[in-house]
Q: What sequence folds into this?
């Protein structure tokens, strides 16, 4: 909220510089996003009064003005605008001035006449877009005074963030009360005196009916007769301008002014445009559409709260008025609406209409109970003073209940001290709360009965009072104190430990970790291996890349490679991240997957090399967790092998063929479920007694049918005899369509003796026999 | 005998100086120290000496033996170096062309740093699911439906009334379903915000959530814990500063600022001339939220905090665009 410091000064006298004011507000929890100094851009511009105007002898579009700027001599200024008249007061830029739009004013000879300056239009001063004529100023302004001072634009404005729990502070008076409390200054309360005219009574002019007190707990109205619509005085225009609101006419400006000052949105209707001079607050019901005052036709929902006259809707309650009841130049009699609408209802309505207004923002935050009457009076007073209106006597107040109960919060001093962590004395606390206008009474035994002022609806529980004490004392004055507590050993979860080890291991193998988004587009969903319709769809994606929640990390990893393969010889990446599968339970079946993808343009080691490397990597990983012998691999097809743990597939490795066409040789991958690894029985390493006797290893090459799987062969060899201590495949070669030649290195060792040739020959025969029987494998000689 | 010993020593030293290859050195070693070597032959004569002479001569013999061993070892070392000329390479600093080490993501590395600090202060580290229900993401955290406060969290929604968690705070509630105070834990994890991205905003980012519940936990404890954390993370020069704020799930609430790492409070472009950087939201757990956790608010109090790990990491490395972390760009990732 933009806070004018000139305005603030009306409610609290202070000497601090703007930066200091901002700092004090910051400590109170109101941060200044920006400090804008107004007026400097108007240096060299003064109030001038046009004395005479004669047309330029040599140019009929130009006139020559004599302008009084309070010096002994009048200035001669050549001007091209046609809206000027003698007697008018206008912004006059003196020679050497640089205007806010960058134009430099110089003494110039214009068609033979020296011009000593320039009369300015709105746009030239950066105050608007209007270039239709010279800006005509208020008659009351003092000749020769600085333009900024005279117009009230010599101001500094803090753009303060008001927290959502403090709707009362979303106003000039609210911030003034806050500032006074923070610095311990006096808040200058202004009593509003409404000069009512006995000629008129509001009750005779207007009837109000609230049909839904739930959505509109309070509705107040006043009528102001015979106003003169015209521009607002300069000071008021300046207040609005620096506060970011565009001045329109005195009546609309007053309603905006009061909204900024009191935080209460007002609406003004033209009384004569109200059918039956009546107002009903009701839901839209069967009404289907409504034209708001910005000229847009809005589609209504039946439960939207509307303001209606005797015949039709005249405003969307708390959001925007209608063009059918808008105040115009011809308006004579004004209805001021000052009400409370239920925040939830306003919020839903403005969301559905896509229409956020200054009014709706404030209604959504919540209006305190006493606010409508105060603001209604203030607006009536200003319309009397500034628009010459006659205020009809009385105010209509339609309300659900007379007054809201004031809540008394019982707070224990010990509680305050415990939560803040500092020992305050009772008197200190009382004093700080008194600065905020809290009524505090001693209930004995260190208990305080605290009643917050009527505008503080956010104070309901003891913790709220604690916050006020802390804020007033200053959070940054609280001395940090270490926690005293039980010492408990903490260990990371298995999941964290395993994840950490995996990442270390994968990086050590030369792979680089990527983080990808959790959602992907439809094409990627199609590559995931899970049907698109089995994906969670994002209901409100910002773009098509966010259409579905991923079920595999691979599609985006492939995308990572596709985006960079041209500039890299080879790419090896890994990711550990969540995937989301549909489930019958309340929450998705969320899994953490460990995935790697490796792409290489280097083929000198043969086509099979990448797949062997990725398998080797997997074996190393599982070896790290002592699962080397527990995990097995089951060939699914020529592109994919399943990784089996405890008889269940926990993932796979293979070639990425879909979507990788332009890469030439496809990348290889593995992906498995981390959770399965976390749940697996990871045994402690159990020491195997070392044999004192030497071992030997021999190479065996077999001719084998092509459908025999590696894992089965290894198992068969290992089980052939207890002297077999190690088996590893070292070479594989395709002999023909149905035959392969495979080489194994088999180790033999005994724990009882040194093996002699006969022992080895015996085992060797067992192995050969077993493989021949089981798989029809033949030793190649 | 003394003279004999001296004689052996002198001859041996002279001989050692003239030896040029390792083979002759070994032969000579045997000639001097061998069972039938010069030294042993002399020592055999020790028997015939008097009680007074024996220790003197014995000692001398030993001394000479040591001297000779030293001389021979020195020569052996220099001879064996000469012996392996094939180890000479053109440039020993030439790099290997094999597999290079890979890189863990800067967010992984930085999260570990953050976790390690909290573990050292007795905090558990827990993680949780990324898809949540409105109940845990909002309701139980005292953020009622249709309350303007919900606007603080722009949310991605999925079908079946699910959403992508907008903060790690739901895990406070889920963690407390399985725990009783005293509790000290942090929750690092991925979170989502439904918003347009730019250099400082991402739809996807990482948060770390903290929760401490015990008897007599105070704002002073909160400040101390976070001060220790930031000083350990960024160095002991940093200062922290609390500022009043509002969150529905804490009361009182505050934001924690840290003195700018670049300008140390003077004001620079990194801190938008403020001298301070907003690092975390924090506060005392709201009594209603304590109740929702099943904790007796009359007995226990607690503090909670939450902040962006991306931002902390970016500050640490001087990264100016949050989106870089999620692009899989190797030129970026390989720097860490």
A:
């Amino acid at each position: 909220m933009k806070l004018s410091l000139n305005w603030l000064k009306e409610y609290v006298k202070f000497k601090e510089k703007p930066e200091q004011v901002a700092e004090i507000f910051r400590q109170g929890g109101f941060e200044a996003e920006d400090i804008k100094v107004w007026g400097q851009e108007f240096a060299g511009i003064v109030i001038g009064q046009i004395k005479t105007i004669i047309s330029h002898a040599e140019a009929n579009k130009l006139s020559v003005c004599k302008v009084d700027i309070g010096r002994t001599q009048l200035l001669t200024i050549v001007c091209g605008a046609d809206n000027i008249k003698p007697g008018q007061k206008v912004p006059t830029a003196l020679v050497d001035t640089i205007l806010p739009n960058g134009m430099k004013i110089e003494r110039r000879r214009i068609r033979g006449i020296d011009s000593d300056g320039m009369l300015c239009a709105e746009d030239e001063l950066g105050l608007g877009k209007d270039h239709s004529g010279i800006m005509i100023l208020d008659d009351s302004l003092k000749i020769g005074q600085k333009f900024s001072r005279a117009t009230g634009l010599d101001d500094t404005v803090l753009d303060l963030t008001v927290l959502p729990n403090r709707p009362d502070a979303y106003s000039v008076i609210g911030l003034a009360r806050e500032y006074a409390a923070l610095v311990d200054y006096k808040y200058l309360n202004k009593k509003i005196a409404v000069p009512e005219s006995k000629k008129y009574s509001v009750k005779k002019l207007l009837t109000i009916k609230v049909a839904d007190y739930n959505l509109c707990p309070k509705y107040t109205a006043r009528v102001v007769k015979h106003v003169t619509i015209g521009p607002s005085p300069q000071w008021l225009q300046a207040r609005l301008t620096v506060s970011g609101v565009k001045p329109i006419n005195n009546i609309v400006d007053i309603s905006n002014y009061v909204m900024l000052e009191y935080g209460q949105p007002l609406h003004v209707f033209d009384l004569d445009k109200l059918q039956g001079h009546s107002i009903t607050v009701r839901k839209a019901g069967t009404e289907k559409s409504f034209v708001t005052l910005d000229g847009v036709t809005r589609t209504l929902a039946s439960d939207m709260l509307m303001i209606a006259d005797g015949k039709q809707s005249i405003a969307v309650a708390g959001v925007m008025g209608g063009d059918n009841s808008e105040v115009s130049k011809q308006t004579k009699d004004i209805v001021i609406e000052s009400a409370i609408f239920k925040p939830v209802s306003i919020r839903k309505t403005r969301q559905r209409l896509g229409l956020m207004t200054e009014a709706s923002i404030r209604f959504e935050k919540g209006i305190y109970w006493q606010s409508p009457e105060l603001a209604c009076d203030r607006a009536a007073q200003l319309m009397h003073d500034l628009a010459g209106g006659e205020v009809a006597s009385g105010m209509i107040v339609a309300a659900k209940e007379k007054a809201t109960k004031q809540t008394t919060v019982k707070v224990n001093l010990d509680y305050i001290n415990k939560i803040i962590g500092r020992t305050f004395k009772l008197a200190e606390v009382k004093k700080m709360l008194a600065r905020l206008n809290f009524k505090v009474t001693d209930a004995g035994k260190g208990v305080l009965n605290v009643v917050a002022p009527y505008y503080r609806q956010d104070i309901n529980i003891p913790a709220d009072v604690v916050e006020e004490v802390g804020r007033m004392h200053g959070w940054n004055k609280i001395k940090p104190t270490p926690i005293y507590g039980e010492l408990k050993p903490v260990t990371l979860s298995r999941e964290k430990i395993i994840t950490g080890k995996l990442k270390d291991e994968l990086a050590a193998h030369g792979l680089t970790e990527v983080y990808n988004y959790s959602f992907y587009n439809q094409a990627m969903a199609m590559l995931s291996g899970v049907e698109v319709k089995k994906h969670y769809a994002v209901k409100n994606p910002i773009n098509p890349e966010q259409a579905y929640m991923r079920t595999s990390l691979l599609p985006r990893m492939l995308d990572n490679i596709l985006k960079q393969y041209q500039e890299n010889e080879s790419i090896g990446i890994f990711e550990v991240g969540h995937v989301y599968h549909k489930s019958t339970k309340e929450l998705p079946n969320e899994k953490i997957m460990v995935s790697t993808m490796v792409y290489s343009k280097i083929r000198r080691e043969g086509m099979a090399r990448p797949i062997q490397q990725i398998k080797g990597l997997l074996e190393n990983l599982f070896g790290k967790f002592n699962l080397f012998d527990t995990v097995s691999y089951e060939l699914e097809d020529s592109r994919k092998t399943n990784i089996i743990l405890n008889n269940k597939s926990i993932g796979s490795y293979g070639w990425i063929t879909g979507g990788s066409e332009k890469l030439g040789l496809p990348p290889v991958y593995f992906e498995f479920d981390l959770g399965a690894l976390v749940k697996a029985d990871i045994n402690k390493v159990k020491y195997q007694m070392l044999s004192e006797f030497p071992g030997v290893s021999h190479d065996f090459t077999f001719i084998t049918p092509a459908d025999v799987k590696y894992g089965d062969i290894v198992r068969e060899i290992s089980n052939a005899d207890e002297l077999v201590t190690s088996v590893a495949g070292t070479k594989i070669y395709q002999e023909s369509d149905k035959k392969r030649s495979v080489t194994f290195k088999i180790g033999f060792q005994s724990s009882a003796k040194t093996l002699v040739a006969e022992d080895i020959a015996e085992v060797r025969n067992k192995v050969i026999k077993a493989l021949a029987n089981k798989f029809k494998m033949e030793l190649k000689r | 005998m003394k003279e004999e010993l001296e004689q052996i020593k002198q001859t041996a030293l002279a001989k050692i100086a003239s030896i040029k290859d390792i083979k002759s050195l070994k032969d000579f070693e045997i000639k001097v120290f061998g069972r039938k070597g010069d030294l042993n032959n002399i020592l055999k004569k020790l028997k015939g000496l008097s009680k007074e002479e024996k220790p003197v001569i014995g000692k001398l013999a030993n001394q000479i033996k040591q001297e000779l061993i030293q001389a021979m070892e020195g020569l052996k070392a220099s001879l064996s170096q000469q012996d392996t000329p094939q180890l000479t390479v053109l440039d020993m600093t030439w790099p290997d062309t094999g597999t290079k080490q890979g890189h863990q993501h800067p967010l992984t590395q930085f999260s570990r740093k953050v976790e390690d600090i909290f573990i050292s202060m007795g905090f558990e580290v827990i993680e949780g699911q990324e898809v949540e229900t409105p109940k845990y993401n909002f309701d139980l955290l005292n953020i009622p439906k249709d309350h303007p406060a919900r606007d603080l969290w722009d949310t991605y929604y999925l079908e079946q009334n699910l959403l992508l968690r907008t903060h790690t705070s739901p895990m406070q509630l889920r963690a407390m379903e399985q725990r009783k105070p005293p509790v000290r834990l942090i929750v690092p994890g991925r979170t989502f915000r439904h918003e347009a991205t730019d250099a400082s905003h991402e739809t996807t980012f990482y948060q770390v959530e903290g929760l401490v519940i015990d008897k007599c936990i105070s704002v002073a404890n909160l400040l101390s814990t976070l001060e220790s954390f930031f000083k350990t993370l960024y160095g002991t020069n940093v200062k922290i500063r609390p500022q009043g704020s509002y969150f529905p799930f804490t009361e009182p609430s505050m934001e924690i600022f840290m003195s700018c790492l670049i300008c140390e409070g003077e004001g620079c472009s990194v801190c938008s001339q403020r001298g301070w950087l907003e690092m975390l939201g924090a506060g005392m757990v709201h009594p209603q939220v304590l109740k929702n956790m099943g904790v007796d608010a009359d007995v226990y109090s607690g503090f909670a905090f939450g902040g962006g790990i991306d931002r902390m990491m970016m500050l640490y490395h001087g990264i100016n665009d949050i989106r870089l972390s999620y692009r899989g760009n190797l030129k970026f990732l390989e720097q860490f």
Q: What stands out?
A: The mean pLDDT of chain A is 92. Residues 757-775 of chain A form the longest helix (19 residues). Residues 541 and 769 of chain A are 63 Å apart (CA to CA).
